[in-house]
Amino acid sequence: MDKFMSRLFKVLAFAPLLFLMALLVLQTVFALDSRALWFSDEIRYANVFEHVIQAKKWLVMYLNGVPYPDKPPVYFWFLTTLLPIFKGPTPALFMAGAALSGLMFITATCALSRFVLRAGREVSLGAGLILLTCFYFIGLTHYSRMDLLFASLITASHICLFLAWERDRATGLTSAGFLLAAVATLTKGPLGLVFPLLTSLVFLAWRGNLKRFFRRDVAIGFGLALLVLAGWIAAAWFGGERDLVNNIFYKQIYRRAVDASHHEQPFWHYFATLPAALLPWTFLLVALPLKRLVSGSFWAGVMASRKEDSAGSVFLWVQVLSGFLLLSSLSTKIIVYLMPLFPPLALLIARAFLNLEQDKATRFMIWTGGLFAFVAVTLPFGNFFHQWPISIEGLWWVALASALAAAVLWFGRRLSPPAALLTLGLLVTIWVQPLMLITLPSLDRAMSPKAQGELMGEYIDQGYTPVAYKIYSGVYTYYCGHNILETQDLPLIERMTAEEPKLVLGIQRKYWDSWENRPKSLRVVHEQWVVDRPYVLAIKDDGTAMTPPTSMTAPNAEEQPESMPAETTESTAPASLEQAMPVATSTADTPAMTEPPLGDETTIPQPLPEAGKAEQPTEQ
């Protein structure tokens, strides 16, 4: 088996990207439409995308009918390329976007191997297999976020700039590198430009060639990047989004860097989370000769690398170390911010693993097999250790797949590193199938607000005025199909309840229970856990409207009535109701009001600009 797998590895290395693409497709394609969109990023980004394609908000993003400063537009432009296939903003489109971003990430990693590390195709294949066996990376290829695209663009920028630093002058390469950094910045934020800048400065300083950064071609490239970014900001400013521009510079840049209101973590945060994010490859530490780190000869070799012909390796280490220190110095710390470090890490890990002595590779295989064995033994008891009022499905199937992986890794523990790496890649591809097709979809009832959002949409369609109290903005919007009023003002909700003939309210259970002056006309018709807390849906009407009995309830939820909302005619619906998702003339084009006048037939309810501050963190 070892000879066959080793030869197969060498054959696949002739075109590493083709095999890696096939493996990624097998890991993702069957799960594209297997589950709902989850709280909180997926459902919010889905509604932002709806505003892009339906309200034509292409330049400045909108969420729930109001400007959304947390994210630039490039990721949502990228998703529009999938519309000819999926025909609309469906969950499958967003999952395909995640998988395609994963392919771009792997492609960028292979390019980094070829043009920077230059260690051969086997290392490229090995790095791709390391990514496709890294649990955290696999998870991101099944979750709709822009981080994989963001990191891919940063990696491409690094490649161009490294090639430029090898030349005395390279206007085309520096321009391409900085323009890619600008596009990365317009994908997620200013770190898209900071990462390549920092890596370049540290690398050139280490090599004793810092003056290379201050030449004309760099000024041209950097100027082009600033021109692109300034063009987007100017277009937003002159397009009437001045408050949004101020928000970007203060909240999204300054506050995140030095004074985060959410996700603030100590300096050592990533020292704890990076090992978890790299599993199972963290176990490689037990196989590496770490004692060398305390030897003088090792550090003498490191210093000698400044002048030796090892620029590619040095550049990758600079990417990792400078990026890690940069992220650790920021006030906001989230594990997904580490993704730009994964391409160089994957290459360094691949090169180290493929050159391991047999006994050390065996040690890694035993530890990894032990992890799968632990999952196999503990996972069947998973339903005893969560707080949700649901039964997670497929745990036995995932446990069985884990046991299979553990057994194969044990019996194949003496495989050579190339054969071991290929075997692990195939095993993980099998292992993810029950996880993605059975277990994760069963979590919809606890991770997605779909059930409550769709029920709210049914009530809105029947003439109920929607309002939500202290929620993450946009939690209900995608699945209810309407922009809704989001507020922290309970007296406003009390007045609306008194004045509106029909009202539907989304609110956390803890706020519902502690509401001192809660109107008696409100009654709970649905309760559901969303991640770590229960939410209730309450209505006020004349008592004739009922709720379908299919609602998933949390413990102690109020009894569910047994019929659908009563039919109402358009003339009886509140005039303030928005009847459809935003179009070019929707609420997104109307300034948000501090408080919507009730009963005014010309008024469309707008989300309050300050709504949800207490519960809405700075965007990840």
UniProtKB/TrEMBL annotation:
What InterPro entries does the record point to? LipidA_mod_glycosyltrf_83 (IPR050297), RgtA/B/C-like (IPR038731)
Q: Where is this region: Disordered?
A: 542-620
Major location (coarse): membrane
Q: Which domain of life is it from?
A: Bacteria
Q: Where is the composition biased (Low complexity)?
A: 544-555
One Gene Ontology term, aspect cellular component:
plasma membrane
- Recorded topology in the membrane: Multi-pass membrane protein
| Location(s) in or outside the cell | Cell membrane
The alphabetical list of record keywords is: Cell membrane, Glycosyltransferase, Membrane, Transferase, Transmembrane, Transmembrane helix
Q: List the protein's name.
A: Glycosyl transferase family protein
Which species is this record about? Desulfovibrio ferrophilus
